[in-house]
Fold these 4 entries.
Entry 1:
Amino acid sequence: MSMTQQAAPAVTTPPAPGPEQSDGRTRQRPLALRLLARPEVGVFLGAVAVFVFFLIAAPSVRQGSSMATILYQASTIGIMALPVALLMIGGEFDLSAGVAVITSALTASMLSYQLTLNVWMGVIVALVVSLGIGAFNGWMLVKTGLPSFLVTLGTFLILQGVNLAVTKLVTGNVATDDISNMDGFDQARAIFASSFDVGGVQVKITVVWWLVFAALATWVLLRTKYGNWIFAVGGNQGSARAVGVPVTFTKITLFMLVGFGAWFVGMHQLFSFNTVQSGEGVGQELIFIAAAVIGGCLLTGGYGSAIGPVFGAFMFGMVNQGIVYAGWNPDWFKAFLGVMLLGAVLINLWVRRTATRR
């Protein structure tokens, strides 16, 4: 008899099928949470709520002409809010944006009138000046390492003083002269300040430009290398530079985009009213920043979209005109905007926390 015993081969029974295990990193999140992760979702819901509220509180808002006026008010804010939002996603903000609009308009007006040039010469020079202001802000920022708050606050004060002093020196008044009879005015007005008919309602051309710029900004952010650079420098500038992102180029060009927006809005104001008040623009920079913040952009950078500020600007236009159509005291406008800003920030904070919670 053998001293060793042959062991029978073990039979392995496969485990019963059960629910698929997940470590939490590859698990598909619910659609609702994925939608909430989008920075524009919160402001979209807020814009719908404000719109419905004023439809009920101010029946005249339902008229086509009223809605055209609301969209016009939103477009003049939204055109500037778009480059301001891109700059904020890149981790910076510009306090000189409001007075830069007036600087651009004053440059085009005074150069054309005082030198009796075709107004297009003034428009081109104003573009160069606006881009130069943006480039200066960006260059100062990257060369000195100072916060954008300090750099652009200095530019804000400089432009505010120059606007008033130079206008008084050149025209002897606080406003520029009327340029409506000068060569090229009608052609420039058609591009920057004309209207067109839609179903018997006059719609300003700025509404079209606003939507075109929003689509272009969205494409840049989501489909181009430059858009990736914007998010990278806003998220972590040091890490972005370490992986080859041209931080200096990105920062300077973002400020120049704000300059371009200031030029465009400045030209609209000039060719809408034929003249410019040199003391205007102060405080508008806060409106542009607030529209971007309400639209989901973070002051700390690295997060946001171009669609969110569109809804943010629409909310501003809706509130601005809705208060008038409702017959309320317009003195409450800024208070309402402050409440709306704080509410939007809190909602966006809750949305982000909910979207990132597992």
Entry 2:
Amino acid sequence: MPTNAPAPTAERSGGTPDAHALMDVTASDGSLRRFLHGLPGVDTVGLEARAAALGTRSIKTTAKAYAIDLAISMVDLTTLEGADTPGKVRALGVKAVHPDPTDRTTPSTAAVCVYPDMVATAKAAVAGSGVKVASVATAFPAGRAALDVKLADVHDAVAAGADEIDMVIDRGAFLAGRYLKVYDEITAVREACGTSARLKVIFETGELSTYDNIRRASWLGMLAGADFIKTSTGKVAVNATPANTLLMLEAVRDFRDLTGVQIGVKPAGGIRTTKDAIKFLVLVNETAGEDWLDNHWFRFGASSLLNDLLMQRQKLATGRYSGPDYVTVD
């Protein structure tokens, strides 16, 4: 898009941009700004009302059993603490492969998510299982580092065997309107991932202040080559919510309609119960559609969620709750 082009108009149903609006949109800071600020504004009341309404859906027992197993298979089992030890990471890897050692019909989780220096340990723990190893990088969680430092972080994680990289955007640059800087960093990290690692782009939605900013960040991340867009680091007060996840699901749906490219979504932080997880699965099904009901396209970033899913799964199977020692402590 030429730098003097007008903002794209909402010509498709639902107010999303048409294909012409993506032409040369990243050619300059000005054209990218015009595109992002030309996206339709978010109806806050409507968004939150729809998220709340979908959260009231009830499902039958057989569907609940399916939903629990699906949610387990979508968990990125996560430990991101300064006190992480090789022993803790190995134990987490074992749990990811066999979440319930008393019931081998329990699906494995999608991935284990760790800091870059723990990737090799996690990789050994899940070897041969199909469980992926994800690693946070780019100076997680604040993202306050020079680009060469961020890229070194990514290269180290990929070299150690990471299958997925969860990067954080420069929120300061984004909030200052320096969209091309954010775009260029994402594309540089995408290149550093090579062909062996998928890229999840974390927006830290709790720091973006407005739904309009979350919509803009979603489109920016997708344009820059994200394989997934992710709500949060889990390290701030406001993390994944039904409303911000619904907004991101709308974005990936519209992006695929426009480009043919499917992007995943990962809500992270604050999702602790089976009831919460099922609400998010309903959001996925009703907003993006069944194509996203697969761990290749939807994940939960969580540490404690898995324990509740296992407890509820066992309750459905036996009719009773087990004691607190039924699940391992993460």
Entry 3:
Amino acid sequence: MNLLKGRPARAAAGFASAAVVLFAVAPLVLSDFRLGLLAKYLCTAMVAVGICLAWGRGGLLTLGQGVFFGLGGYAMAMHLKIADAGPGNLPDFMQLYGTATELPWWWQPFGNPLFAIAATVLLPMTVAALLGLFIFRRRVKGAYFAILSQALAAAFAIWLVGQQATTGGTNGLTDIQGFFGYSLDDPVNQRMVYFVIAAVLLLLIALARQLIQSRYGELLVAVRDSEERVRFLGYDPANVKLVAYVVAAGMAGLAGALFVPAVGIISPALIGIVPSIEFVIGAAVGGRASLAGAVLGAVAVAWAKTALSEEFPAAWTYFQGLLFIVALAFLPGGLASLAVFVRRRRAPKAPEQTAPVVPVGEAA
């Protein structure tokens, strides 16, 4: 009973500590530039929350989260580019590279802010639902699922590069100036974007924790550990996995949407195979089965990429791959499991019990 009471208390304390760090400490000690970098890192942490749910709890190695991140990012960037251009005008890159005299038909709905906001979440979730139905109904899992999801990321990035006139091609959608009427050149508005990102991250963590602690979370773990037994009990494992996959896609799409005003750009280089693997590496290093570990790991890996890639641009990619291999091979629980590992090593070993020696006469 005390354990059950202690878990909500620890969770509440953790949320309170995170809120204090994100909303009070970070804005006080970090410059505007560093705070902008932290906002970027928190967006990668949102993706890690979804990976923790899908991979850490459900065993779905999602190597294609860059697709959903990109769908959300491009949906938001399309609206912001239309808003920056003004009524009746084309976005700047269309005037430079395109031959159209009006917005393409599939761009036009994104001029509505409500449609664009909804699309940042619903579009990735719809794509994930269609893809998941095809994959899970055919019982594709393990390495085959990972390869398919990664192939989707590669195909999406290649398609974006080939649509120079409507997606900006290799450059993507750049030089975004405003965010729903607020100028992103103003440091005050940039801080506002940071606070929005921090608040959304905490909400996503709370949502993921609720799912994990619910009956569905237990069912998801059961599907991961013994899919056939779950099917024997009358549940459809495909539906269970599909929910986790779709929710993780929605979180990645929302992260991509908030990444755009934080950085001012979205491009194929940010959503292809390499970024998709980086999302997974962050969750694995921190601890894919722990929400706090996945979030902290994603932030740490993103920070290390920024800091170390400047000093070792050629070696950083190899170091990143080594991190992933070490985490999976020697510390499957990630850094979040270090405390448990140390406690087990320091725990005194129970003395070995030996059978008492009974004299032969008494035994007879």
Entry 4:
Amino acid sequence: MTGYVPGRQFQNKTADRSGLPARSFVTGRSRSGAARTGPARPHQAPRTNQAPRITALGGGQGLSASLSALRRLTTDLTAVVTVADDGGSSGRLREELGVLPPGDLRKALAALCGDDEWGRTWSEVIQQRFTGSGELGGHAVGNLLIVALWEKLGDPVAALDWVGRLLNVQGRVLPMSAVPLDIEAVVRGHDPAYPAELAAVRGQASVAVTPGTVQSVRLVPDEPPAVPEAVTAVREADWVVLGPGSWFTSVLPHLLVPDLVKALVETRARRLLTLNLAPQPGETEGFTPQRHLEVIADHAPALAVDAILVDERAVTGGAFGQADLAGLEKAAERMGAALVLGRVARTDGTPRHDPELLAAAYDRIFRTHGRIGPWR
């Protein structure tokens, strides 16, 4: 693991594997077109001789990728994780015991494990699934460990802290809410026989595989309470990172928790949005990169962003096709953001982020788009 060293830039031999520096399209306008003023976007004062304090929001594999990169830059790292999963092992435990779905929390913990023998071993252990067709079949060891501590301690945050101590993770993992949530989506063409018809589809697992086009999502129950520690982590961060991940079921849910989105709007931290590498079958099939940004703006119109990270190859003939860069720049401008193009995908052709390339891209953004501390 490449750790933080005060006064030194993040260095990694893979940082320049892209062959070219990240390109930025810097904008700073509000949705109305007016220039943003300082008081509307107060930012965190510098903190002397400290690594950046970063809070990452999301769920599933997308958040895991982001955390794997961010832990290379700082140990002052908090993951705020969605709690709406209703499939697989998490769904079974949630239905049987009435607990939060532990799967995305487990993945975040695994991503924060160290690169030493202890960290690698525990990361593999908590991800290990029982085989067979019995009652344990398909359950992940980490899910059972987390639920056991929840039952023993009666406090989801304290229990996750205990698991983090056992695994010696580099950071902290929090649920975004202390109550299990459901996702309900409005989908056009969920029934292929009626492609123009709108239907309500409930459950993260169902939304993720709908053959239709998701129009919007909401949480059930409405206006769920946020975990106070998650709100504090957003408000006290230097940078808040949102995405990548399943757009409607992992990224957007954070913007539907009132106290959490209020903290995101009011925080003095700078905000970074990481775009996916490809449209996701079911959730965002056929979406352009700018459509992803428009969805964020539709669900949280008061939220402004400082930088948006996009993989250059994904939008220049990759998974998104030959994207309209001018349209993407305008969509970023409407969010008040600088559009940053870099190379952050793995080179094996799969739509997955490379942790080291992503870390290098994050580091460049943290240093060049509004320094808020003298750690460089």
